[in-house]
Amino acid sequence: MTNGQRTEQAYLEPLKKKVGRSIALTIRFSNRDPLSLIKELRRPRSDLDSFDEAWIVVDHDGENRSDFLRACGKLSKKSRPVHGVVSVPCFEVWLAAHYCQVRNYQDQRDARRHYAQIAHVREGEKSLPKDFPWDAVAEATQRCRLVGIPEPELDTQGPCPSTTMPHLMRGLGLL
């Protein structure tokens, strides 16, 4: 699940084809803040228990996401973990890392501008180019944070810039 409206959707939807038949991947999008997503998943009709795992992908958006990550932990069961994936300052950090080493972004706007430059898309465009480097996932796991900074632990929020998307990629068997 993600609260990203278009960029995350443009990246996550094609992953269904990439994970193969061994993993059934269901992606849901909700235009709500991260804690509202948690409330939605707490409802009896959320069908959360029908999944083996749940991953919720959100942007930092200039907000500390510790409460969101704790709430994910509270939703988890031994038989069905719920993981929070936080991209700081935004999901474009993960996208940019497919092309090159990320740099020290001042804010979301700076990260989005850099991604637009290297992906050759219009700034603010919320889609992936046709020639997006899907085969660079392994490299992206190393380039999605500053050199010398360790990968953030699963279910944590790393420093700016960083993302915990590599954990999701491992969970999907793409690494």
Per DSSP E runs of 2 or more residues, the count of β-strands stands at: 3
Number of helices: 7
- Give the H and E element order: HHEHEHHHEH
Gyration radius over CA = 15 Å
* Global shape: globular
The percent range for strand residues is 5-15%
Q: Which stretches of 5+ consecutive residues score pLDDT under 50?
A: none
Strand sequence of the main sheet, in spatial order? 1-2-3
Percent of residues in helices comes to: 25-40%
Provide a descriptive summary of the structure in words:
With 175 residues, the protein is mostly helical. It is built from 7 helices and 3 strands, in the order H-H-E-H-E-H-H-H-E-H. It has helices at residues 7-18, 34-42, 66-75, 92-97, 108-119, 137-143, 165-171; strands spanning 54-59, 82-88, 162-163. Helix 3 (66-75) links the parallel strand 1 (54-59) and strand 2 (82-88).
List the helices and strands and how they pair.
Blueprint (H helix, E strand, L loop, with lengths): L6 H12 L15 H9 L11 E6 L6 H10 L6 E7 L3 H6 L10 H12 L17 H7 L18 E2 L1 H7 L4
Parallel strand pairs: 1-2
Antiparallel strand pairs: 2-3
Helix pairs in contact: 2-3
